[in-house]
Prior knowledge:
Largest sheet: none
Number of strands: 0
Distance between the termini: 65 Å
Amino acid sequence: MANHKSAEKRVRQTAKRKEHNHYYAKTARNAIKALRATTDKKEAEEKLPKMASMLDKLVNKGIIHKNKAINLKSGLAKHVAKLESAPAK
Length: 89
């Protein structure tokens, strides 16, 4: 247990920061799952730039490592490239 005021404050700050980072990381994971579950190429192509932007923001905030973001963006781009366009009705 923390014995100094500064250590107590540090515990509070760390807990708050952890909760904040967890929220944004979880939101990104859910968005990635949604993009990977998409079967329509046009819809996936619309979502891809937004996803890349979200990952870049997480890197700038220090929530995820830059190499992880690069790997995720690369994998998502490959996934979107493999999709076939939905047949026109």
